[in-house]
């Protein structure tokens, strides 16, 4: 038996063990170098970042008990990198592990390593196509699947900042990498606001906005995504504050002229085609979160100029925030412009 080490742990009753473990795993703070251990009638779940673990659990379950406990380090390889000898590129969405490998043999090698590792995975998939069409859907090769799971292989429940999202990656676009950005936007929202989500998907912007007390109109061209959004709204207790529409936002917007206090435009490849629609929906003073993909050398000027041209004579345009969300390619970045539109008195 190896020597015990003092390790920070979240200590919970056994009945709360799986819920807590999943929340910590989703937040990527579960310390898989040590086994979850029962000590004095409690489950002690090792964590890598006690402060982050406490914040995650407080937002979902209330205050967490974190104590240092004597645990034994696992002796066998626990990460895919330990098994492979190199760090593979993987994403996690709920209990789906996502690979992005061109070589099928490499994808299979990584999938086998993930299956042998500590990484919890109901399904392991490899990207089989780029994002395609108006609905922004990918094709997937399912490499590993739990045939006894209740959900489809490509379906999972993703937890993010205290909210749960049922998604199907074969039916809609959903990126776990945007969690921090979505939270940045939702923290700006106040109760009573009118929020218009132009490309809502399964609700990752709309549901946190409604949870903060906003009245939300959520629009998407994908009827399946709207079905999931409606389910997720009820799942998160905000069904009464979200009005969902399936259709072209340019048509739906006719019902909401001068309505919005805040607009989310998360369609970075083509949101510029909907700037006039945003201006039609905007109220007297409206904040717009405009997502774009531009040259890293000058990522914000094109969006600013696009709004200034479209709003000329109707609104003044003020830049209140410029955020580089992530790198998109060697020379391009995904950005968000936070703009305020103020109606010009005639």
UniProtKB/TrEMBL annotation:
GO BP, one annotated term: tRNA N1-guanine methylation
Keywords for this protein: Cytoplasm, Methyltransferase, S-adenosyl-L-methionine, Transferase, tRNA processing
Gene3D superfamilies linked: 3.30.70.2580, Met-10+ protein-like domains, Vaccinia Virus protein VP39
GO terms assigned for molecular function: tRNA methyltransferase activity
GO CC annotation: cytoplasm
Pfam families the UniProt entry points to: TRM5-TYW2_MTfase, Trm5_N
Ranges in coiled-coil conformation: none
All residue ranges annotated as the SAM-dependent methyltransferase TRM5/TYW2-type domain in the record: 90-343
Protein origin, superkingdom: Archaea
PROSITE patterns attached to this UniProt entry: SAM_MT_TRM5_TYW2
Full protein name: Class I SAM-dependent methyltransferase family protein
Taxonomic source organism: Natronocalculus amylovorans
């Amino acid at each position: 038996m190896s020597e015990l080490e003092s390790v920070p742990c979240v200590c919970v009753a056994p009945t709360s063990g799986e819920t807590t473990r999943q929340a910590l795993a989703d937040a990527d703070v579960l310390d898989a170098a040590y086994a979850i251990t029962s000590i004095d009638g409690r489950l002690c779940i090792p964590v890598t970042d006690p402060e982050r673990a406490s914040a995650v659990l407080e937002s979902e379950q209330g205050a967490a008990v974190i104590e240092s406990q004597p645990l034994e380090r696992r002796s066998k390889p626990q990460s895919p990198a330990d098994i492979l000898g190199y760090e593979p590129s993987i994403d996690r969405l709920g209990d789906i592990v996502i690979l992005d490998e061109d070589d099928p043999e490499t994808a299979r090698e990584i999938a086998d390593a993930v299956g042998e590792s500590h990484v919890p995975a109901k399904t392991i998939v490899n990207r089989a196509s780029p994002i395609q069409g108006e609905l922004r859907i990918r094709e997937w090769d399912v490499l590993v699947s739990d045939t006894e799971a209740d959900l489809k292989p490509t379906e999972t429940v993703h937890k993010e900042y205290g909210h749960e999202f049922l998604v199907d990656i074969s039916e809609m676009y959903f990126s776990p990498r945007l969690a921090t950005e979505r939270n940045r936007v939702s923290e700006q929202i106040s109760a009573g606001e009118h929020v218009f989500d132009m490309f809502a998907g399964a609700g990752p912007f709309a549901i946190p906005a409604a949870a903060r007390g906003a009245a939300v109109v959520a629009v998407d061209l994908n009827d399946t995504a709207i079905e999931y959004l409606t389910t997720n709204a009820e799942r998160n207790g905000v069904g009464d504050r979200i009005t969902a529409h399936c259709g072209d936002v340019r048509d739906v917007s006719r019902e909401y002229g001068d309505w919005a206090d805040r607009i989310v435009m998360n369609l970075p490849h083509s949101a510029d085609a909907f700037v006039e629609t945003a201006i039609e929906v905007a109220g007297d003073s409206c904040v717009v979160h405009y997502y774009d993909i531009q040259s890293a050398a000058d990522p914000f000027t094109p969006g600013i100029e696009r709004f200034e041209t479209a709003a000329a004579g109707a609104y003044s345009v003020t830049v209140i925030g410029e955020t580089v969300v992530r790198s998109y390619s060697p020379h391009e970045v995904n950005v968000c412009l936070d703009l305020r539109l103020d109606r010009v008195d005639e």
